[in-house]
Design a protein that fits this description.
With 182 residues, the chain is of the alpha+beta class. The protein has a domain of 91 residues: Alpha-Beta Plaits, CATH 3.30.70.3270. It has four helices and five strands. A three-stranded antiparallel beta sheet has the order 2-3-5, with no helix packed on it. A two-stranded antiparallel sheet has the order 1-4. It is elongated. The relative contact order is 0.14.
């Protein structure tokens, strides 16, 4: 190695050191951004787009919109969501799928939001409640439909059915009149 190469590499090293010290010096004089958590919970601002945990949307009457279609379960890339449903017969004779359990494992969720975007009835959303620390993994598995589901009110009879019932006694009276004439 020649003297020229030696001094060239020495000056390159000193230049690199000064460049690094410049960055360190800038950070030394900039104001610090430190949050005093948990003392500042009341004033802490969490962005709306922050995804913390999945939850059901309930209306004012306590009903959720989930129709137990299973799209969120199918689109979940790592099996975080599991749905148990059953078929029930409605008062009008039709069969409908009813949600039994909606289980969500926060510990294995990747917060990809595929379940929320694929939900046809817009029944689930991510909250921005970031405090989810627990001591055991079992506490990370949650049942989202924790509120007992109320029975939906029965639909009112259709006007056509009521009109047929009103016509039936009139028809039977006309039939009786004909029998008496004969």
């Amino acid at each position: 190695m020649s003297i020229k190469e030696y001094f060239s590499s020495l000056f390159k090293g000193i230049y690199s050191l000064l460049k690094g010290l410049k960055v360190t010096g800038k950070e030394l004089v900039t104001p610090k951004v430190t949050f005093q958590y948990p003392e500042n919970r009341d004033t802490l601002e969490i962005p709306e787009r922050f995804r913390a945990t999945l939850r059901f949307k309930y209306d004012s009457e306590g009903y959720h919109k989930c129709i137990a279609c299973g799209l969120c379960q199918m689109n979940c890339p790592n099996g975080t969501i599991s749905i148990e449903s059953k078929m029930v017969e409605m008062p009008d004779g039709k069969k409908k799928k009813k949600l039994e359990k909606y289980m969500y494992d926060l510990g294995s969720c990747t917060f990809c939001m595929l379940c929320v975007t694929s939900c046809a009835s817009k029944a689930i959303e991510f909250s921005n409640d970031f405090e989810q620390a627990v001591f055991t993994r079992e506490k990370l598995v949650q049942q989202l439909n924790y509120l007992p589901e109320k029975e939906r009110p029965m639909p009112a009879p259709k006007p056509a059915v009521a009109a047929q019932k009103a016509e039936a006694p009139a028809n039977s009276a006309a039939t009786e009149d004909k029998k008496q004439e004969n």
